Amino acid sequence: MVEKSNNKRQRVNQVPKFSINDHHDVLVEILRRLDGPSLCSAACVCRLWSAVARNDSIWEELCFRQVSPRPSLSLRSVVSALGGYRCLYFLCIRPVLARLPKLRWTRDQLQFSLSLYCVHYYERLYVGAWLGDAPPSSLMFLRKPVNVV
Amino acid sequence: MKRSHQETSVEEEAPSIEGSGCGGGDDNMDELLAVLGYKVRSSDMADVAQKLEQLEMVLSNDIGSSNNALNDTVHYNPSDLSGWAHSMLSELNYYPDLDPTRICDLRPIQDDDECCSSSNSNKRIRLGAWCDSVSSDSTRSVVLIEETGVRLVQALVACAEAVQHENLSLADALVKRVGTLAASQAGAMGKVATYFAEALARRIYRIHPSSAAIDPSFEEILQMNFYDSCPYLKFAHFTANQAILEAVTTSRGVHVIDLGLNQGMQWPALMQALALRPGGPPSFRLTGVGTLSNRDGIQELGWKLAQLAHAIGVEFEFSGLTTERLSDLEPDMFETRPDSETLVVNSVFELHPVLSQPGSIEKLLATVKAVKPSIVTVVEQEANHNGAVFLDRFNEALHYYSSLFDSLEDGVVIPSQDRVMSEIYLGRQILNVVAAEGIDRIERHETLSQWRKRMGSAGFDPVNLGSDAFKQASLLLALSGGGDGYRVEENDGSLMLAWQTKPLIAASAWKLAAELRR
């Protein structure tokens, strides 16, 4: 009897422990399936998860979740040149969805968000070093609290 | 008491005193006045009437200097007519034998329990119910008198009529009265009225605002702020871009001539849309027209746009033209390449200043026609501020800018810097429409139907803007807040941005008339 349980203990000891933190690609695959708020929570779990969550492909997946057809490679290069999908999500897409929660998220809305993102990029280029405390932002209309009549 | 009174904001109630002094009603209050919201004891009627007459005399003689005094102090709730008139008179130093005990003796109003909490020497009293829009530290107050808004508009129009009939002394008196009324009117109406009053005053005293008086970098800040904080410029840019995109779907090269480059905020979005075009982006050439004072700025702007184009992978070329007047432009300045490029001409709020010189608009449109564009996009204010009669222009402008200022009101009590700057931006237009004349008057807005006639006689046919433009504009306006006040309206193929059903901006697209295209 004792021998059997010893074997069992040995067998248990031999099985390697699995930690998700050792497998970043698996973690990325899991995070890609989350929705916006959950993803933001996940990014706050620990430093490692925060770093992994900066992987732009996760945010790309989030931006295009309900949109078809899928984006082309040229879109990816444009968006990453303008600052990446994560910034696109936080600056443009999330405020739009927050302002219009019933909005059907289609390619048109995505295009519109991209245009806003591009204007924002250009404005930062144009204004350059700003001496005041609040540089002008073309996206401020998305952030201002709105009177819902 | 029975004399006919000149119109002042309070005195209309006074004539009702005749024959109405019946002693009934609660607490001896006059019933008729109570219906209007004024609480006056029947026994005090004669006294109140007398005070009001004195007040009227003082105000009409003294209105210039007393303005400041009235603005700096806090007054009783005007429902208590007696106390209010008394405090006004004592502020204006009319009542030399002021009896300090009377201030605290007055009957407190039920819904305002702070009325009597002052000491004799300190007349700064906070008005609870009336002051909820002002911070508690502020010693200014708003003397809210019923129907001031209507009276304000009446005074403004009366003043404009006086100016129209060259009755400058009457106009002078009226404009001062408008100033007082405007200062006490809260909200958009007060601000608009203040700008119109200033413009009328400039017209009366013949101080013509020079359009070059403003610092160009401040001008730029105002424009960027106006772009950022309200949807008008965004609507203009996005709608024009959509029309351009639809016209260049199969082109290998696009050349855009922008008649008013400003900060180039329209072009990043177009370049991004071109970059993502299925089949790859066309080459994009931009020729921007700017003012002479801004040569270096235009150069910088070209660099920044080139940087953006490089980042998103669009082949880009930029050239800048500076000119004092758009009508000085000649077709060969643009170096068009008709074999390889589709030409687009874009004008956002740039056509109406050209109307200040006779014959210029025809020359400009002839130049535009001569370069043979595939599409011309025009966005202009939807208003007729270019009529021959001053009074008509004034009334139109009052209606138009009241709507505009109303749309800027976001319900936030302390105005943000952005809103103030937007108001300054619009205020300068008001000054120009009302006070300037001749070549200086550049804000010569015309309605879409007027522009349609001009474009038609210059040899252009209209292009329908399509449902994509409509949907995009609707999305933009839905995101812009304003509590659903913004609307897109379709008008015979053109789009209009309206605030509370009043159209404010009109966007249209044009192509060369059929026989000219060959």
From TrEMBL, chain A:
It comes from the Eukaryota. SMART domains: FBOX. Pfam families: F-box-like. Residues 24-62 form the F-box domain. GO terms for cellular component: SCF ubiquitin ligase complex. Gene3D superfamilies: 1.20.1280.50. InterPro entries: F-box-like_dom_sf, F-box_dom, SNE/GID2. GO terms for biological process: gibberellic acid mediated signaling pathway; regulation of gibberellic acid mediated signaling pathway. PANTHER family: F-BOX PROTEIN SNE. This is F-box domain-containing protein.
From TrEMBL, chain B:
The keyword Zinc does not apply. Pfam families: DELLA, GRAS. Residues 223-288 are annotated as: VHIID. A motif (LXXLL motif) lies at residues 351-355. Its main location: nucleus. This is DELLA protein. Transcriptional regulator that acts as a repressor of the gibberellin (GA) signaling pathway. Probably acts by participating in large multiprotein complexes that repress transcription of GA-inducible genes. Coiled coil: none annotated.
